[in-house]
Amino acid sequence: SNAQQTLAILKPHIVKNPFSLNQVKNIILKSNFEIVCLKRKIISIEEAESFYSEHKGQFFYNRLVSFMTSGPSELMVLARENAIQEWRLLMGPTKVFRAQFENPCSLRGQFGLSDTRNATHGSDSPESAVKEIQLFFPEFS
Ligand code: DAT
Ligand code: MG
């Protein structure tokens, strides 16, 4: 088939709120993604630093690492045709005010609280998808 895989993360403020979590999962399934693997875990500081290493030195880096390790996230391998691009489209823009303005129906438009607490993560290329799936699902890859 033409299925491609991407790594998705539902960030801690989504997982903490059962109503949001359920809504996000329903949107994922309605959008024709298959949830191939799912795990709920508290991302460690080491994992978050490695995962976001490209942003080391940015003003938001420490805030991002402490938010991402503040409670359980849900990590998913999602599959569908063109999954990487389609998942990023469904998430919407990184910055929450842009998401709310340009694509209010996107996940970040609906569920984002700030530029850091922007609801979801998605891999940005086939190379990063492989690397990110490897990091969080070493037993799967
Ligand atoms: P994306 O998550 O859309 O791939 P990114 O890779 O540029 O965006 O940044 C990773 C995460 O870092 C992003 O989801 C939230 C945080 N972040 C990025 N830019 C930020 C900013 N200007 N202020 C606060 N947090 C930011
Ligand atoms: Mg990114």
UniProtKB/TrEMBL annotation:
Residues 3-141 form the Nucleoside diphosphate kinase-like domain. It catalyses: a 2'-deoxyribonucleoside 5'-diphosphate + ATP = a 2'-deoxyribonucleoside 5'-triphosphate + ADP. Its EC number is 2.7.4.6. The active site is at 121 (pros-phosphohistidine intermediate). Gene3D superfamilies: Nucleoside diphosphate kinase-like domain. The keyword Protein biosynthesis does not apply. It comes from the Eukaryota. The keyword Transferase applies. Keywords: ATP-binding, Cytoplasm, Kinase, Magnesium, Metal-binding, Nucleotide metabolism, Nucleotide-binding, Transferase. GO terms for biological process: CTP biosynthetic process; GTP biosynthetic process; UTP biosynthetic process. GO terms for molecular function: ATP binding; metal ion binding; nucleoside diphosphate kinase activity. It is an enzyme of class 2 (transferase). ATP binds at residues 11, 60, 88, 94, 108, 118. Belongs to the NDK family. This is Nucleoside diphosphate kinase. It comes from Acanthoscelides obtectus (Bean weevil).
